[in-house]
Amino acid sequence: MNRDALDDSRDRQLSSPGERYGERFRTNISAEALQARVIEAETHALALTFAELGSSGDVPRAVALILGARRRYITGRGKGAAYADLLGADLSTTLSNVFVVDGRSLTDLTVLTDVRATDVLVAFTMRRYREETIRFGELFRAAGGELIVVTDSVDAPLADAASVLLPVHTRSASSADSPTAIAAVCHLLGTLTAASAKGARRRLTARDALAQELHIYHHDDEPGDRGPE
């Protein structure tokens, strides 16, 4: 077993933030030293994730499923909800029919009532693996939809049900698992999808025009452009 595999094995035994806090912050450490440890760990986790995904070809396969789907659903609970929102925001700029299943405005029950083989669900599930995400993903796949799983282990509870599995490295120097590689995978999926989506340029242009009409974004007038006070 190589060093990375050994470190990952030890890390997997620290299942809760409390356990990781006790292990990683056992001694007094300066802010500078802790910063260096965090930067090193994040850089390493990201490099490993990119290397493995780059050689596996799984990201392009996931993108093909997203592009070919009639409806694109994204879900995650707990911190996973933040990743779902991030990917949803990126995909919706160039694709139609992108829906974040958050359990409030759109529920698992509503989606599962009408799953089609042309639907895809992207599920974010990280330890300690929220039961509702696992069950939703299993039922979505059983109903005939395609399932893309972004997770922190090939042995994660939802991994066996995945049409495409995107494993990421989350080992960190903090009591919290690293979000860096997960956010990077969201960026990869969004970028590759935008590059291949039909009508992406037209959709982006229309969004820009509508954003101006709706005054969504702050705009500083150039000197001389302001009207009377």
Structure keywords:
globular; alpha/beta; single chain; 12% strand; 229 residues; Rossmann fold; five-stranded parallel β-sheet
Task: Briefly characterize the structure.
By secondary structure, this protein is of the alpha/beta class. It has 9 helices and 5 strands; from the N terminus they run ααααβαβαβαββαα.
Write up what this structure looks like.
With 229 residues, the protein is an alpha/beta fold. It has a domain of 155 residues: Glucose-6-phosphate isomerase like protein, domain 1 (Rossmann fold, 3-Layer(aba) Sandwich). Helix content is 51%, strand content 12%. The protein has nine helices and five strands. It has a five-stranded parallel beta sheet with strand order 2-1-3-4-5, sandwiched between helices. Helix 4 packs across helix 8.
Give the topology, please.
Blueprint: H1 3-12, H2 17-24, H3 31-56, H4 58-68, E1 71-76, H5 80-91, E2 98-101, H6 108-112, E3 119-125, H7 131-142, E4 146-151, E5 164-167, H8 180-196, H9 200-214
Parallel strand pairs: 1-2, 1-3, 3-4, 4-5
Helix pairs in contact: 4-8, 5-8
The residue fraction in helices comes out at 40-55%
**Helix/sheet category:** alpha/beta
The protein's oligomeric status is single chain
Main sheet makeup:
5 strands, parallel
Q: What value does the average pLDDT take?
A: 88
Beta-strand content: 5-15%
Structure annotation, total helices: 9
What is the CATH homologous superfamily assignment of the domain at 54-208? Glucose-6-phosphate isomerase like protein, domain 1
